[in-house]
Amino acid sequence: MSGAGRQRPQRGQRPSLEFRPVADLMVDPAYQRSIDTGPSQALIKRIARDWDWGLCQPLNVARRTDGSLFVIDGQHRLSAAVLRGDIYDLPCVILSVGDQRDEAAAFVALNQQRLKLSRIEIFKAALAAGNVEAHDINGALEAAGLSVAATTNVDSWKPMQVVNIAGLEKCVRTHGIKVLRMACLAGAVAFHGQVLRYFGTIFPGIVAAVVKHGVGAPELITLVLGGCDQAEWRDEINRVKADNPNINMHAAAEMAIVRAVDEAREAQS
Fold first, then answer.
1. Please, which residues have CB within 8 angstroms of residue 189's CB and are 6 or more apart in sequence?
2. Which of 45, 115, 178, 217 has the most beta carbons within 10 angstroms of its beta carbon?
3. Would residue 194 count as lying in a domain?
4. Which of 93, 125, 157 corresponds to the end of one domain?
């Protein structure tokens, strides 16, 4: 075909086009992005207030093997319809899927074609799709009593929730799952019960301390971390960065926390 290049074979089954009752449509939070944010709630209210059927594109919906229907794309439209209360069904492009993993993979593929997902959203979808690395990271978090927050909006975070997906992934890829588990546990114990506002800033330093001293002194690392609150560690890392303008914040965190653990270990000798 002229201009199209070499085309790959078609994949998947042809979907069906149907109007389905709003009450039959569900959303799986295991991989769907959270709509509990200010911008999402504002969008839902705006769609509901100014509902226009000409702008209501069909929702992408997965039909699971038990017949249940889960929205892959379109939960803002669904929520707006529910909010109005006078819309009883919605147009849907319905795909038959094998299981939740296929559904989550379809969610990622669909959204990556047109919208960049956040690291949190990609991580949660990868976890639902059975990605091994995501499973390992989630296991390390759960073992430490941590979990991934629903959004990057700090005002919505609950105690012991983290958002530093990139840092967690870098740790496991560079140092392995054992170091990740130790670093997560050290941070969780040191800042137990707190909203982890600066955990992403501090975490590279925790990892560096675990790599250097973790096997021989895990309790010391936790003790040193707990000796300052998160804001104090953030300030110390910023001071190190100011004193060393050629390094990034990641390296500054490593320098600040490793130095503190080194000093504490020397004091014990």
1. 144, 222, 226
2. 217
3. yes
4. 125
Residues near 133 by Cβ (< 8 Å), separated by ≥ 6? 126, 169, 172, 173
Tokens standing for residue 160: 């012991």
User: What's the average model confidence in pLDDT over 141-151?
Assistant: 95
Residues near 146 by beta carbon (within 8 Å), at least 6 away in sequence = 160, 161, 162, 184, 187, 188, 196
pTM across the whole model: 0.64
CA distance 206 to 260: 11
Contact present, 200 and 163 (Cβ < 8 Å)? yes
Distance CA 129, CA 107 (A): 10
Which domain does 137 fall in, by range?
Answer: 132-268
* Residue at which a domain ends, from 63, 96, 125: 125
Roughly how many angstroms between the first and final C-alpha of the chain, as a whole number? 76
Model confidence pLDDT, tens digit, residues 98-109: 677 877 877 776
Measure the CA–CA gap between 40 and 29, rounded to whole angstroms.
Answer: 15
- Give the distance from CA 81 to its chain's centroid: 27
